[in-house]
Specification:
8 strands, globular, binds ligand 3NM, binds magnesium ion, 8-stranded parallel beta barrel, binds ligand LCLJCK34
Length: about 220
């Protein structure tokens, strides 16, 4: 895999409840448009469970493998280990970071959601590889999202000298993505901007263009 910061540029997150058409079609289009990493997040109303969830995860993992895109599993450490996923993403309400690091091993990617400097320090020392910070903008995708804080925490962590890769999340679109990277994030993570787009391919392309505009 390329370095993690590069891989996090356009981070697509999706599960079947987010899709207006077949999840495999949405993911294939998103990858064709340039997403650089994928998180399987099977959560919310009508989310699949058991064998159906497992089968969808395998199908999406195989698409990611074919295109050499890291496949990350949200929350479900058991599933990630069973599938040999490239990594997991956990939040503050999930298993402790050090426990998850121990379970998945040193060679897997471990993403952690942080909302304060203290959470960032703890996650870093417990073995996080990157931070997810949000919600940057209003989102209706996550019912239990914290209050919107814009890019403030990203800026604070960079000012304090944190060099760990960071992605912003929550309400990010191709119109506001550049501001997140300008604030110090390595990339942007999105659900709706790609999964609900008429063309997930064009949506991914626009996000990537706008993220890359900020660099260099
Ligand atoms: C890249 C990224 N950042 C943040 C999150 C949110 O994780 P969490 O707070 O655990 O909430 P759920 O996604 O589990 O509802 C994420 N999934 N990915
Ligand atoms: C999964 C998730 N986590 C968030 C956080 O703030 O940690 S916001 C969020 C939902 C992101 O979806 P959309 O791109 O549709 O706004
Ligand atoms: Mg979680």
């Amino acid at each position: 895999m390329k370095n993690l910061s590069e891989a996090l540029k356009v981070y697509f997150i999706m599960g079947s409840p987010n899709c207006l058409k077949e999840p495999a079609d949405v993911l294939n289009e998103a990858i064709a448009g340039g997403v650089t990493i994928f998180q399987f997040r099977e959560k919310g109303k009508n989310a699949l469970t058991g064998a159906e969830k497992y089968d969808l995860a395998r199908q999406l993992q195989s698409i990611c493998r074919e295109h050499q895109i890291p496949f990350i599993v949200n929350d479900d450490i058991e599933l990630a280990i069973e599938l040999g996923a490239d990594g997991v993403h956990i939040g503050q309400e999930d298993e402790p970071v050090n426990v998850v690091r121990e379970r998945i091993g040193d060679n897997k990617i471990l993403g952690v959601s942080v909302h304060t400097i203290e959470e960032a320090e703890t996650a870093l020392h417990a073995g996080a590889d990157y931070f997810g910070i949000g919600p940057i903008y209003p989102t209706s995708t996550k019912d239990d999202a914290k209050p919107v804080r814009g890019t403030e925490l990203i800026e604070i962590l960079r000012e304090q000298g944190f060099t760990i890769p960071i992605v912003g999340i929550g309400g990010i679109t191709s119109e506001n993505a550049a501001a997140v990277v300008k604030a110090g994030a390595d990339g942007v993570s999105v659900i709706t901007a790609i999964s609900h787009a008429d063309s997930p391919l064009e949506a991914a392309k626009a996000l990537k263009n706008n993220v890359e505009t900020v660099e260099g």
